Amino acid sequence: MATGTAGIISLIGMVACTVFWAREVRTTKGQRKSIRTIIGSMITLGSYIVAVKFGIDIATSLSADQKATSIAGCICTAASITLWIMWSRRPEPNRNQEFLLPAVFLSATAILFLAMFWLTFSNPPLNRSEILKTGGIASGAVIALYALWLNDRRRRVEESRQDTEEQRRVIDSKRHILESDRAEHDRERVANEYFARSVELMGHAADQVRVGAFHALTRLALTQPEFGQTVADVLCAYLRQPLPYTEIDHLKPTEDRHERVTSRERQVRRTAEQLISDLVSTNPTKELALDLNLYGAELQVLNIANGKIGTLTLTKSVIRESVTIRNSDIIGLVIMKDTEFRGPVYLQYCDFNNRLLILECNFTEGIQAHNSEFLSGLQILRTTGRGFYASETKFHETLALDFINEKPAIALTDSYLINSRSIFIPDEYSVTVDPNTGLLEVDNKP
Fold it and tell me: SS3 for 29?
C-alpha cells in the first residue's frame, strides 16, 4: 500500500514537473529562459526516474488485474498530459477544441483507472462493482467539471460579445453625433457665407442685383429659421435709409437722371416691403415673433397678414399708401409716433397682447379696427385724422381717442371695454359703458 501511494505521488510530481517545464519553455525569454529551462528539464527528468523506479517496484508486487489497471492508467495519463500541453501551447485567441475534448476524456479515463488501481489496496478489500462505481464517480466528477468550465466559458464569450456590441453601438452613436455636428457646422458655415455675400450685394449699384440679394436673404431666413430675425433687421435697415434723390411722385416724359434713379429705387424698396410681409406670414417657426423696427422709413405700403410680430416701431416714418395688419398676433409693444399715414389703416382679426400707442401722428384717412382685441388697451394721443372706426372689437383697461383736429369721426359698433380703468373720446361725443357686459355706446353731443 505504501509503495502504491509513493508511486502515485511520484506520478503526480512527474505530471506537475512536466506542466511546469512546458510552461517555462513557452513563456520565458532570453538568458533567463535558458537557465530556467535547464533547471526545469533536470527536475522533470528526475521526477520521471523516480516515477519509473516506483513503477518497477510496484509492478513486481502486483497481480495481473492491478498491472493491467495501472498500465492503462499510466497510458491515459501520459496521453492526456500530451494533449493538455499541445492545447496550452497555442496562443489564447487561436485555441480551439480539437485537443481539449480528447484531453478531458483521457483525463477522466486515467482517473478512472488510477482510482480503481488505488482501491485495490483498500483494507478490507472491495469487490469489483464497488471499485468500478467509485472510479466512475471520480471520472464523472472530471466530466462535470469540464461541463461547468465549458458553460462558464460560453457565458464569458457571450458577455464579451455583448460588451463588444455595446461598444460598437457607442462608437457608432458617437460617430453619428460627430458626423451630425460636422454637417451642422458645414451648414452653418455655408449659411453664414451665403448671408454675408447677400448683404454685400445689397450695396450693389444695379437694381436687379439688390433685388436678388433681398430674395436670397428671405430664402435663407425661410430655410434657416435662426436667421429670421437677422434678415428682418437687415431688410428694415435698408428701408430706413433715405432715398438717394429728391422725392418725385409722378415722373414726366422730361424726367432727368435723378428722377429715374429715384423711381427705380422705389421699386427696389417695394420688393423689400413685400419680402418683409412674406417673411412674417411664412415664418417656419411660428413660436418666433419677429421684431420690425421701421424708424424713419419711407414705405409704399405695410401689409402684415397671418403672422406673429414681436414689437413694431413706426416712428418718424412715412407710409404713402395703406397699412394693413390682418389675422396676426402682436406680442410686444406697438409704437406709432410722429408718423405720416397717407392712406387708411386696417387692423383686422388681430390680438394686441401689449399696448398700442399712437402719438402725434397724422392720418389722411381713418383707422379701422374689426374683430380685434387690445389686451393692454389702445391709446391715440395728440393725433390728427378723420377718425376711428371699430366693430366687434374688445378693449381692455384703457381706451383713449385723443384727436386734436375738429370733428373726427368716432364709431364703436358692437365693441366692448373690459376691466375699464380709463376712457377718453373727443368732446363732441359722449360714451356709455354697460356695467355688466362692457358694451360701448357712442352718441353725438347735442
Answer: coil
Distance in angstroms (rounded) separating the CA atoms of residues 102 and 426: 113
385-415, pLDDT tens digit by residue? 999 999 999 999 889 999 998 889 999 999 9
> What pLDDT shows up at residue 246?
44
Cβ(102)–Cβ(82) below 8 Å:
no
Pairing mode, strands 298-299 and 323-326? unpaired
Please state, in angstroms and rounded to a whole number, the distance separating the CA atoms of residues 17 and 24.
10
Domain ranges for the chain? 2-168, 202-284, 289-446
Listed residue (43, 39, 117, 40) closest to 75, CA to CA: 117
Place of cell 506537475: 16
SS (H, E, C) the chain: CHHHHHHHHHHHHHHHHHHHHHHHHHHCCHHHHHHHHHHHHHHHHHHHHHHHHHHHHHHHCCCHHHHHHHHHHHHHHHHHHHHHHHHHCCCHHHCCCCCHHHHHHHHHHHHHHHHHHHHCCCCCCCCHHHHHHHHHHHHHHHHHHHHHHHHHHHHHHHHHHHHHHHHHHHHHHHHHHHHHHHHHHHHHHHHHHHHHHHHHHCCCCCHHHHHHHHHHHHHHHHHCHHHHHHHHHHHHHHHHCCCCCCCCCCCCCCCCHHHHHHHHHHHHHHHHHHHHHHHHHCCCCCCCCEEEECCCCEECCEEEECCEEEEEEEECCEECCCEEEECCEECCCEEEECCEECCCEEEECCEECCCEEEECCEECCCEEEECCEECCCEEEEEEECCEEEEECCEEEEEEEEEECCCCCEEEEECCEEEEEEEEECCCCEEEEECCCCCEEEEEECC
As a whole number, the mean pLDDT across the chain is 79
Q: How far apart are CA 129 and CA 13, in angstroms?
A: 30
